[in-house]
């Protein structure tokens, strides 16, 4: 048994003798020993067992929810709040990985509200780091649920940001974006924070990126990552998140890589909280999803076939490992062109005057939704495609809102308010820009106009409507061109889905892990 303990601890310098029946080591080392060990070898003493029970069952703790939020939080949200408080009490970090739309922001705000006395006494504010599109959403949610919290968004030009950062006296919460954190990291790295919340924490799932290096420089008593997709492509991404929020949990990536998936799951269990909608929102109406296959029009087929033949000829010259990596950007551009032709040839051919089968199908769906009194969100990754759709809606006297990556964060919040108030029934949204941070529960139909490499992104788009507050069944319709790369990408996604919980985050990530055989299947 002592040999097994030494193996679990992986401390070659630690010599255990049989007459020794007790030794001291840091809690996280003991935790890894307990979680990686075999039944019967390791036993927890009473105090340690009690601590583990509290961490794994936070709903049983006597932690009190702030009074003004008790009637607002659902039971599972109270549990999430207590889980955060428990981890913070012992100086542990964690990942709140609730399904999209379950209120990760509200649970975090509740934690901040409960810590206000300590925040103000220690003069250490909370830092929220999130995508640029969510900064004002955080500010709005704080003002709505806990107006006693003094919060500020750090944005604008460099001089404006410097002025805001120099005048933080009395501020409880500082909100900034990942891009601006990178720019201002020297300032943030020299200040201490009570807690840091990393929203959409998959932003630093790759430990080698500039974003990951920037967030690693932050100093805080507590760290929490918020993400509905803690693993998108590989299991190493989970290590990258814990390397930031709780680095003591795993000594190194090398050690992590040597653990089995079961061992990893056991070790992270107290420090990752994930609830799914179907498990906690029994009152939430269902979500009906289906694909509508569309035949390309004759002119589209000719253009698609001609470009596909050219791409096959050019690509198959570069299908060994070395040249595939070297030419992946060029290959990606070719695949994008094929997808654009499926959407509308006008995205590929300047001055194209023909029609698009998918656009015709979309307009039929829109007409049917109008007759049925449904409210519709339309997503596309191509802004030019959204412009073409907008023109057709205008011709049909169907007013709509529009949002893409150039829409300011503050304006996004206003557009959501106006849409939810019923001012217009249609909302055209860029998939990557609007996939997160929008609460559009007054919509009951989501149309995904084109196929995206990562199904998690498509699910996030659908969850703009399918979330707390939705009163109707949400229809999610995915348009797909028959016999094209869109069907092949879908097949590839399903195959990859078996390997990881979620799929590839970007096209580049797809091409970095795709095999020669898979690339051939996309083009044949």
Automatic annotation (TrEMBL):
Keywords: ATP-binding, Coiled coil, Helicase, Hydrolase, Nucleotide-binding. GO terms for molecular function: ATP binding; helicase activity; hydrolase activity. SMART domains: DEXDc, HELICc. The keyword Metal-binding does not apply. The keyword tRNA-binding does not apply. Residues 482-509 form a coiled coil. Residues 358-523 form the Helicase C-terminal domain. InterPro entries: Helicase_ATP-bd (IPR014001), Helicase_C-like (IPR001650), P-loop_NTPase (IPR027417), SNF2-like_sf (IPR038718), SNF2/RAD54-like_C (IPR049730), SNF2_N (IPR000330). Residues 85-248 form the Helicase ATP-binding domain. It holds the Pfam family SNF2-rel_dom. Gene3D superfamilies: P-loop containing nucleotide triphosphate hydrolases, Tandem AAA-ATPase domain. Signal peptide: none annotated. This is DEAD/DEAH box helicase. It comes from Niallia circulans (Bacillus circulans).
